[in-house]
């Protein structure tokens, strides 16, 4: 969802850089914080906490609940500021008209996903919606959310195409056995998307690729 359905990558990066890390870690070096930002890009909040906790150069000053609260404080801000991908309604309706099973998979909290579905009137497009709250255990880069989505629509992962925008998301789809199309936009222009099977740079290219049945 984040970075594909809605353009939130740059807003979340701002929140993590200016709000989460300053309030969650000790005064680490600028280099360590830059590395931390890259490490947690696209991760579920719990998984981001675990990743930071495991980093030798990062010292957390909050527990898991405190870390989660820092994100909750800014969730509404992020999704009110977010914009829908240009042409998204056309892409989604075209896939439905073409008889495709379409699922929305997100590493975000369920209530954030609900915000996006309501704000942009997207509920009618998806056969299933899977958030990080809907699975036990880790989210992306673990493949479970994608495996759950494929099972829900009755399609084998190897017959599925997933659209992602982050290295962690790409790892989740490839781990699930899906073909991955990476979408590169303003929020991830420097991200390493090389593990995806294909990279597209515009909504029109994404639409064409998906309807061609990569």
Structure commentary:
This protein folds into two domains: 7-81; 85-211, HAD superfamily/HAD-like (Rossmann fold, 3-Layer(aba) Sandwich). The chain is built from nine helices and seven strands. It has helices spanning 9-24, 30-40, 45-54, 64-81, 88-97, 110-119, 144-153, 167-176, 203-211, and strands at 6-7, 83-84, 103-105, 128-130, 161-164, 179-183, 198-200. The chain has a three-stranded parallel β-sheet, with helices on both faces. Helix 5 runs parallel beside helix 9 (203-211). The radius of gyration is 17 Å and the shape is globular. The two termini are 20 Å apart.
Give average pLDDT, whole number: 91
**What spatial form do the alpha-carbon principal axes imply?**
globular
What structural category arises from helix and sheet content? mainly alpha
Termini, distance in Å?
20 Å
Radius of gyration: 17 Å
Instruction: Give the biggest beta sheet.
Output: 3 strands, parallel
Beta percentage is: 5-15%
Number of helices: 9
In oligomeric terms, what are we looking at? single chain
State the CATH topology of the largest domain.
Answer: Rossmann fold
Q: How many individual β-strands?
A: 7
Low-confidence stretches: none
Order of helices and strands: EHHHHEHEHEHEHEEH
Total tally of structural domains: 2
> Within the largest sheet, what's the order of strands?
5-6-7
CATH superfamily of the largest domain: HAD superfamily/HAD-like
Helix content: 40-55%
CATH architecture of the largest domain: 3-Layer(aba) Sandwich
Report the top-level CATH class of the largest domain: Alpha Beta
